[in-house]
Amino acid sequence: MATLPRKKDMNKYQKYMSAMRTGHLSRLIRLISVSRLRLSAALCLAVTVVLLLGCFSAEPSLLDSGKPYADDYRKVPLSMGGSEAPLLRVVLPYEKRLPRAASPFGPGMDEELLEQFLAGNKYEVRLYYARTYVEAMDLLKDKRGDLAIGFGGELSAARSEYLAQSRAYASVYPVLVKDAGSAEHVYSNISHGGLSSQIAPVNQLLDPHTYSVLAPQHPDLLIQGNLNESVAYRWFWSADNRELGERLEAFWADESREDSLAELRERYHGFMPRKSRQNDLRELAGVISEKMEQYNGAIMKAAEETGMDPLLIAAVIFQESRFDPQARSSTGVRGIMQLTTSTANMLNVDRLDPEQCILGGARYLSDLRRSLEDLDISEWDRWCLALAAYNQGPANLRKALRLADAEGKGKSWAEMRGLYAKLAVSGTAGKNFRHKEALSYVESVRYYYYVMSRLAVVAELENKNLAPLLGLTAAS
């Protein structure tokens, strides 16, 4: 089966991620702390936005006559037999060059969709990168690219004469933000496909997912409001390429596509908050810079023993206690990972000892996930169920799974959310069962994990690009 040309690179990627997460957690802490000093805050914001935004910026082209960067070049024959398959030049947003630009939940929604397309169509693939929607469309117009994915917008009447587009498969309502800490110019003219807006110099139009990444580093980045007009994400290609066009139209017309889209939307965007969580994000930035470092060793030890991602452990700790080892809830759970007395005794740990509590909590969560290995569900659905059990107890999860089995459901976390609500209505889970809390808990942990994972990349970028400008010594 044809796949994206990344299998050979996955070992490198996994080694990089392992090294980054084990060696750069403390670097992330230091760099976010530096960001909060507001040294040249406007410069920090501008450079980060330029590096992260593929759709809402207006930088000059970085491409040299449509040739990919040497370190971006990918060429893997996907044909079978003796003849080589036709070439497919795929244009992605520039942020995809970043080692950690994709969600921690997978390589990315568009990347997975592209893999699905390539599974039924043999191509030799080369990846190219564009900073903006306009730049990507120009690459297609100039015959320097064949297919653009991951960009939001809609073709104008003029572009429709030589380009074609897929149906919309995702959409966002951009947020209008203001850097309250600086009056320096960031960007003033945003043009995004059919969407244009003249904005005051200190304002910026951002994809809400990007805002989630920037906000913890930039506490003065305030949301002024949401744009009333949504931006739809589509694929774009040259109308002259009839063979590619026919294959793409057949791909998007496939009735099974909606099921895979629903699964991808849930995995990559289902946890995104509907309302701004600015206060939470500021608190997260403060905790990372002021508290996390002293628990870095305990987190890494727990990650090593359980095989869990240390950033996922950190996300659970933040959700549970905001890194307060003396935290205590009204229900009697205590410690930095909010363990019950019975759970702490079962794990043989002192829940008021931060290191023991972190190790015990990670073991418990890892064991919960391992107990679900026989279920025919995806790995991340399994983690979501484990998180729900961590919050509301494994007994309630077993009740939900029995209900799922009776109704022929339970193949995903999205289906299980509805079953948790049914348990609450039926009363079978008991009067103390708080299903809304469990659902909110899972999505919050996913959200904080996403933000911290993305921040790890931004921190790496700031280390390389901003430290010299700020007169700091780059961390090794």
User: What's the number of extended β-strand segments?
Assistant: 11
Radius of gyration: 23 Å
Order of helical and strand elements:
HHHEHEHEEEEEEEHEEHHHHHHHHHHH
| Head-to-tail CA distance between termini | 41 Å
Largest sheet report: 6 strands, mixed
Q: Domain count, please report it.
A: 2
Name the CATH class of the largest domain.
Alpha Beta
The CATH level-2 architecture of the largest domain is identified as: 3-Layer(aba) Sandwich
Low-confidence runs (pLDDT<50, min 5 residues)?
1-23, 36-82, 182-202, 461-476
Question: What is the fourth-level CATH superfamily of the largest domain?
Answer: Periplasmic binding protein-like II
Topology:
Layout: H1 7-23, H2 25-35, H3 41-52, E1 87-93, H4 109-119, E2 124-130, H5 133-141, E3 147-152, E4 163-165, E5 170-172, E6 175-179, E7 189-192, E8 195-198, E9 203-206, H6 208-214, E10 221-226, E11 231-238, H7 242-253, H8 257-269, H9 278-290, H10 296-306, H11 310-321, H12 341-347, H13 354-370, H14 379-392, H15 394-407, H16 413-426, H17 435-465
Parallel strand pairs: 1-2, 1-3
Antiparallel strand pairs: 3-11, 4-11, 5-11, 6-9, 6-10, 7-8
Helix pairs in contact: 2-9, 2-17, 3-17, 10-13, 11-17, 13-14, 14-15, 14-17, 15-16
